[in-house]
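Whether sequence alone determines local backbone shape is best considered at the level of individual chains. For completeness, the protein is quoted in full, as a sequence line and a line of structure tokens:
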Amino acid sequence: MTSIATAAAPAAPRSNALWAALGRNRLSWIGLGLLLAIVLMAIFAPWLAPHDPLKQNIVSRLEPPSFEFWLGTDSYGRDVLSRLIYGSRVSLMVGFVAILIAMTIGSSLGVLAGYLGGVFDRLVMGLVDVLLSFPTLVLGLMIAAMLGASLENLIIAIAITEIAPFVRVARAPTIALKNRDFIEAGRALGYSPLRLMGVHIVPNMISDVIVLGSLWMASAIRTEASLSFIGLGVPPPTATWGSMIREGFEHILDAWWLTVFPSLAILLTVLALNLLGDALRDAIDPKLRSE
């Protein structure tokens, strides 16, 4: 009984290590600050945007940055800053929801495959190998093209492309944990496999999955921008960073602000997520933590 009571104990020190790593790594605070600023910008978009992001004003089309339009206007006379602010909502929502879906499905399959083994494990890993054989963007493009351009289909397409890494990350520690003494003690006490996986295995590997999620959310945002750039993202006139870059590509020589500012927004968001993810990775990796 004592072994079972301490089953989730390894998870507690790891959570303390996460906070300790954030405290030691100054770059992680830069990433956290950037990400928090972008999230707040998305939440308070209606109050921060100086103009209606969908309002067209042909008289003011392709105006460079000025006091009235801080980041200029696009080919339809719409304020670039307002569209940039509202575009953060789409990018963050797509990235977060897609990774949450991929994390849930992938981790569940990984834990089941690692714990059950046998034929089920071989089938799951075979599917993972098939998904990993395609580049992320190519696979997302294929799925988005089959489903059609919409916000929901974009999330589904990106989520499917990100499932495979979570399966592998969840499967490996499950295989290592399923033969530990506290799991054997749980089996001896008659605990169901579902309880052993959900209560005693998942808490000891969830931090690995969360770290991977923070890193792959950056990948999801890049994929969303790429698919929007080629016209397979959220349909216009909804503002997204990828579609803003695509719209400005035709005027890249005479209206540089149309592509530069959305590109900088993607760069800062991905940088923030990578800095935060690297700090979390350092915290859970004992080799990196000891250096």
